[in-house]
UniProtKB/TrEMBL annotation:
Protein name, as recorded: Uncharacterized protein
InterPro entries reported for this sequence: Lamin_tail_dom (IPR001322), SNase_OB-fold_sf (IPR035437), Staphylococal_nuclease_OB-fold (IPR016071)
Organism of origin: Mariniplasma anaerobium
Highest taxon above the source species: Bacteria
Family matches, as Gene3D superfamilies: 2.40.50.90
Length: 477
């Protein structure tokens, strides 16, 4: 008896389920794909519902055909007679599609659906696989609507070739005559193919920058130099050349760059487009610490030598001198009659950091005003006192003191005082005052008449001020 009741119940439940499914199927919203508005009107008329039709921009479906049900409606959803059903239909427009992940062929296929002119360009990047979409040009983005026949630039990825940075410009020479020379150096442990590079000279002409490209050839072995020379150079320089070219021409205003084969500059001496006269009659030598190219010129990465000094070419790295002393050649010259000449004296005392009394002959109104410095007057503060004491400490403990005739300033000033470069046991006191930050650099000798340890005195003073600033000394603290 129990078994019969259970069988009847299961039969009834099954019958209800079949009826219910049939009812839902009859009252579910139909799939309208591929139907026009008129066809949808006919369908809704048969279903006994009212359609609310809206146009949405869509370039993937024929204009005027079904796209989707509106928000809150979907295929198979139940409805009741008299319901209002929102339906979306395609409206054509030149809307830019999302091309992410598409190849060039797929890009053309996607954009062929709209009425625009397509231009595909490449951009070097390693962020996207080569040959695939990167971005639209002209700040366009997916979803923008354009006029008919608008030009659409599309960028696809091209592999970014990372340049070899181990080839650097190691030295530069601009002589007092027509001699010109640039040295390259391979900082790496592998040979470098020079044919991948050119040397580019950027000249500032009025408001334009004009480029001269010098193609390189050959292979540069590990830790070796390669010297490029202008053929008008003197014989000693031509003897150093690995390559000669008349295109190597400059006067100290140009920027000189190493350029990789993909037109990317990898190293530069000077500022492209700058045009300042910064390197005439000078020799530049790259600091030992630099092992990779740098497209931002930093003067601190270069040691600057006097004009016509090229003894260091052909060898790299080269240590830049950190100090200098009074050279013997000047001891043979007379202070009073010959530029650069010296006279030996004894220190008496100094009023401040830039004036002192010596004997014989440099007392009273004939006291010595130190060339190239201008310290604070005594009584004007701690820095003035420190400067006076520092100079006194150098001179009063010296075994030998010389006063040197500066070629630019001469030996007398307008007030009648003697002028001079003062040496204490081979150390130039004027220079040390600047280096310790007790005075800014006031020394100038553009003609580089005094040279010590291969570097003009003018440059030594510039180096001293740079040192004081970098180390926050004295007035630069």
């Amino acid at each position: 008896m129990i078994k019969k009741v259970l069988l009847i119940f299961v039969t009834i439940l099954t019958s209800l389920t079949i009826v219910a499914c049939k009812t839902d199927e009859e009252l579910g919203l139909p799939d309208l794909a591929g139907k026009s508005k008129q066809e949808v009107v006919n369908v809704f008329s048969d279903l006994g519902v009212q359609g609310v039709f809206e146009d949405v921009i869509n370039i993937d479906i024929t204009e005027g055909y079904f796209v989707s049900y509106g928000e809150g409606f979907e295929v198979g959803q139940t409805y009741e007679a008299g319901d209002q059903i929102t339906v979306n239909f395609a409206l054509f427009a030149n809307i830019l599609p999302d091309l992410t992940g598409k190849t060039q062929a797929q890009i053309y296929a996607s954009l062929s659906k709209i009425n625009v002119i397509v231009e595909i360009l490449t951009v070097e990047t390693n962020d996207v696989e080569p040959g695939y979409f990167v971005e639209y040009g002209d700040q366009l983005v997916a979803g923008d609507i354009l006029n008919d026949d608008a030009v659409v630039v599309v960028y696809i990825a091209e592999e970014l070739i990372i340049p070899e940075l181990g080839l650097i410009i190691s030295k530069y020479f601009e002589g007092s005559d027509e001699s010109k020379m640039v040295e390259l150096y391979n900082t790496t442990d592998e040979a470098i193919d020079l044919s991948n590079f050119s040397l580019t000279i950027y000249r500032r002409v009025v408001t334009d920058t004009v480029e001269t490209s010098i193609e390189l050839t050959g292979t540069l072995a590990s830790h070796e130099t390669f010297i490029i020379v202008n053929p008008s150079s003197r014989a000693e320089i031509l003897a150093l050349a690995d390559m000669t070219t008349a295109d190597l021409s400059f006067n100290g205003r140009e920027a000189i760059a190493l350029t990789y084969y993909n037109d990317v500059d990898t190293d530069v001496l000077g500022t492209v487009g700058g045009g300042l006269l910064y390197a005439n009659d000078k020799t530049f030598v790259r600091d030992m610490s630099v092992v990779e190219g740098n497209t931002t010129f930093n003067i601190a990465d270069w040691g600057i030598y006097a004009v016509d000094n090229f003894t260091m070419f052909g060898t790299h790295p080269v240590a830049y001198p950190e100090t200098f002393t009074l050279e013997a050649e000047y001891l043979l010259l007379d202070y009073f009659t010959e530029a650069g000449g010296v006279v030996e004296v004894e220190f008496i005392y100094n009023n401040d950091g830039d004036t002192a009394y010596f004997t014989p002959g440099f007392e009273g109104a004939d006291r010595v005003r130190f060339i190239g410095i201008d310290t604070l007057e005594t009584g004007s503060g701690d820095l003035a006192t420190q400067a006076q004491q520092y100079v006194a400490s150098l001179l009063e403990n010296a075994t030998t003191v010389y006063i040197q005739h500066d070629p630019t300033s001469g030996i007398r000033e307008t007030y009648g005082r003697h002028l001079g470069l003062v040496w204490a046991d081979g150390v130039l006191v004027n220079y040390m005052v600047v280096k310790m930050g007790y005075s800014q650099n006031n020394y100038s000798d553009e003609d580089q008449q005094l040279v010590f340890n291969g570097i003009s005195l003018d440059q030594w003073f510039q180096n001293a001020e740079s040192y004081a600033k970098a180390n926050n000394l004295g007035m630069w603290a």
